[in-house]
């Protein structure tokens, strides 16, 4: 039966997020936007994260001795350092000779001995220290609750002790560049707390003027290597943390390097941090002066004003997208850890999945602000001086995955720290390109750190991979596709993209047997060549390299055409593209990972990296409509690789399955991510904690609801049966179109497209569509042979879809 559907704007629904501890329950909307618990965090992986892009903290919610663990995104081990190995270039020809003669193990050892950076390991992101709030009063605790309110980006702790209700609110404010802590009691004069600092690094702590507590410290290296972290001896970054206590009653006094609060009813604590970091070449800044300046920002503000400013700033971004995946009556308003436990036991909880999506967006806003450092392996949250993998920027998947949600979930501004890092890497990577390989342009291998190392590190198994810079450069192009800012393309994106492409034009070499232009040495991260004993990855022309290069070269061609520049460069790119190896289907029907059909011989066939499917996601070179044979080959590869792996690997599989329009399978992988790779505080388990899975899972949910790869919008392209009814508003498609829609029984009921920039809009639909313009008139747009409808739009106008199911 034909059904006529009229479209309207879906209103956003928000609640304050405040709940009564006495009720122990939350509303449906709050369940979608709140992580809450009935006990304090037992360990770091149960604590709750806050952040303003630069200044992060983990709040434990303890009642006797509260711990708030602190991070500053510029506090790293080591000091400015150039990782370039000036002698690497003279060994390049020999390495290639060994690879082309199929002596892969010898080539790996040769590269490992002669072509790694100096030193072979990088530095690590560091914890700053801890703030301790010790409560001397004793008594039985009751009616305890602990909550991270995603609507307001505030952690709230509340409990009763000896008949008194104590409330604690903690948030990291971007407008005030401070962590703000509010302590209150509902009985006058009942609040008693001792405030102190500590750090794993060399530090001193001093109470000044009764209400000011200052911690000063410095990273000092002992010269010893640690796992994947180079030993550095001597002093490095300096840091300071200043804390000021503003009490409304009672007393505040300095004693024994701490501040004592006695017989108060309400206290506001403002905490700021700073390091001596200026840039990757200079750590001579004055952290004391910076802390003093940051404290002055909020000096004359009331707590209510600081709270209001924080919420207003945060909600400006968070409220752009609303998601409802249906209601679950069986939840019965359970705390988040209990819901997660039930989910692991098979209880359907689509609200938990929506919460996980919004938690990913919260982490993006909290961990990556314009002007901050980009998100590392742990975002900005880390308690270890020797963190796993150094908590670095690993760019053979992890750093890129961190930013997959940025554009589609309407947080485009938060992509900028990644672009700032690329500005630095053009400089350091340019030196590596010339000294290691004799090439123009710039290169980045599989890791970088605060000091912007670009040389190959860790070992040939991981480090001999030259397309990290190329992959990161594709983020610039995607940012342009989503926003359409030609000044950004001209002034920032294209020069960086061009430099990455120049390096590859020089680095690639013709394969002596196959005749293709290929990268050599190279590897397919981080999978060993199947028929070679031991773990050996170095090879020539792996599929992932060629896919990234094809994407980048085509993006450069399109960008240079838009900007009407570089005709000679276009000719060079076009000639190289004609000589790149094609995507190949192997004897088992799988997409080949290497130039040769080695895949099925792999001893570790279910490897966590599925690098060769880059063309499916994020590359978009494989499409079920345009390249159905290759799409089927991707399905075969995914079947052979299995559904296990690390958290980030499962998250990538959510996106792979969504791009293949396998909604139920994408949901299966999302469920696997939540069931077996998620901590009680919803942080990703790699293991251990690694934040990329959170962002990959968030992006995967968006991919299931909206795709616009290739400039064609698809609504609900991979909707699972579990999400038969729902709504979403504010997702963004390439071309800067914002989408709102509702659906029931898996079918769209209402949809609107807001055209922010204007221009042509293209939509693919399995059903007939009527499109009405802002004036309500039918645009009379009709589908082409592939089922795509294109129509002109005007900037800042809304277009309605009537769908005939």
Total helical elements: 19
Structural class: alpha+beta
Which strand order does the major sheet show? Answer: 1-6-7-8-9-16-13-12-11
Percent helix range: 25-40%
- Unreliable runs: 1-24
Can you tell me the CATH architecture of the domain at 33-77 and 124-324?
Answer: Distorted Sandwich
Topology:
Layout (H helix, E strand, L loop, with lengths): L27 H5 L1 E4 L10 E4 L3 E5 L5 E8 L19 H9 L3 H11 L14 E6 L6 E9 L4 E8 L2 E10 L4 E8 L5 E8 L3 E7 L3 E11 L10 E15 L3 E5 L2 E7 L1 E10 L11 H11 L5 H16 L3 E3 L11 H9 L5 H18 L25 E2 L3 H5 L1 H5 L7 H22 L9 E2 L11 H4 L4 H16 L2 H22 L1 E2 L6 E2 L24 H20 L4 H11 L50 H14 L5 H13 L3 H14 L15 H14 E2 L5 E3 L10 E8 L3 E8 L2 E9 L3 E6 L4 E4 L15 E6 L3 E7 L2
Parallel strand pairs: 23-27
Antiparallel strand pairs: 1-6, 2-3, 3-4, 4-5, 5-10, 6-7, 7-8, 8-9, 9-16, 10-15, 11-12, 12-13, 13-16, 14-15, 17-24, 18-19, 20-21, 22-23, 24-25, 25-26, 26-30, 27-29, 28-30
Helix pairs in contact: 2-3, 6-18, 7-19, 10-12, 10-13, 12-13, 12-14, 13-14, 14-15, 17-18, 17-19, 18-19
